[in-house]
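Allow me, if you will, to draw on your knowledge of protein folds for a short while. I have a record of one protein: its chain in single-letter code and its fold written as discrete structure tokens. The full record is reproduced below for your convenience:
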Amino acid sequence: MAGPAPGRLLRPLATLALALTLLAPGPPAVRAGQTPRPAERGPPVRLFTEEELAGYGGEEENQPIYMAVKGVVFDVTSGKEFYGRGAPYNALAGKDATRGVAKMSLDPADLTHDTTGLTAEELKSLDDVFTKVYKAKYPIVGYTARRILNEDGSPNLDFKPEDQPHFDLKDEF
């Protein structure tokens, strides 16, 4: 399947950038007499294609390990003993493994973003693990293209950046 022409993606990305700027929370309120502290900044978040994300599967010794759940890309390098080469959950690294996380499965057929046909219990498990494990433990480094863009290259208007203090749209596009 051929993707949209490169020029066709620029306008939707610019529209998405504007929408995200409007959605981004403002700076926290500062009490009178207090000096505002700069927000802690991690690496800027970015957009990942499936091919780019596959390059962070834990195979290279000195490269970060990334995985995606629900289209959110996490840096799981601190859990190298779980996600690195030869580790028990390495199959999840370098891809959007949403279905596998929901089903608690490492079956290659489940290592996909597709949630079609998951039970209510599996979807609840997915939300719990997403919030209580991944968002609580690992920094967000980006989003999958599938989460931000529709298949035709237009912006996904339902996209909401995850609540991260270092998310700054001007660094992303």
